[in-house]
Amino acid sequence: SQQGEEDPQALSIQEGENATMNCSYKTSINNLQWYRQNSGRGLVHLILIRSNEREKHSGRLRVTLDTSKKSSSLLITASRAADTASYFCATGNAGNMLTFGGGTRLMVKP
Amino acid sequence: DAGITQSPRHKVTETGTPVTLRCHQTENHRYMYWYRQDPGHGLRLIHYSYGVKDTDKGEVSDGYSVSRSKTEDFLLTLESATSSQTSVYFCAISESGGGAFYGYTFGSGTRLTVV
Q1: Chain B within 8 Å of A96 (Cβ-Cβ)?
Q2: What φ, ψ does residue A16 adopt, rounded to 5°?
């Protein structure tokens, strides 16, 4: 079963617009991570936010975490065609593994 | 991806045959993971390792076994391949359990087709 569920499953925007993806999870976590996957490639780690953090930035990426609602959001500002990919959230707890959601497919049209 | 390679990249095999996939890392990371990726299911953990000869089962371990005799190599074996094991298999490595500090580094994947 998936711990994280992304919403929406698919998103299509124009270049220059912002893209927002959401992730909800079910059990307590100690960190939440976002990954990007280009077609036919492996996943690439984007950003990690710990359970005691509420917001984190990395370049054009902004991640928020609301542990009371068990949800996170990933915002990509000023999107580019090269941002076209699938984006996955993954949750980590006290164990040794991450649990991944089903992903959001983002298409950025030039 | 730098520091982690999977082999083979593509494989077609027949039902009932054993298949071994290899993951090799040059990062000296303690943790190694095997996931499978299927449409509609995201990534699901098969097995993982937290050290040489130390392994544990994941969510979808039935029909799979693993071995880690060296830090750098983590092998995934399909004991008797079935069509339901047609999938893309990803290996990942991490310095810390659950990628708690630096996240995972993934390999490029092995596309396995069982006919």
Answers
A1: yes
A2: 95, -25
pLDDT band with cut points at 50, 70 and 90 for residue B66: very high
Chain segment B18-62, per-residue pLDDT in tens: 999 999 999 999 999 999 999 877 899 999 999 999 999 999 999
First to last CA, chain A: 36
8 Å CB contact of B104 and A43: yes
| Residues B94, B107: Cα–Cα separation, whole Å | 12
Q: How far apart are CA B50 and CA A33, in angstroms?
A: 20
Distance CA A69, CA A67 (A): 5
Helix, strand, coil shares of chain A, percent, nearest 5, are 5, 55, 40
What's the confidence (pLDDT) of residue A3?
65
**Mean pLDDT across the stretch A41-70?**
96
Residues of A in contact with B98 (CB under 8 A): 30-31, 92-93, 95-98
In the numeric block, the tokens 């983002």 are attached to A106
Q: Which helix (H) or strand (E) holds A26?
A: none
- Name the strand (E) or helix (H) holding A50: strand A43-50
CB atoms within 10 A of CB B69: 10
| DSSP class of A97 | -
Helix (H/G/I), strand (E/B), else coil: A82 = helix
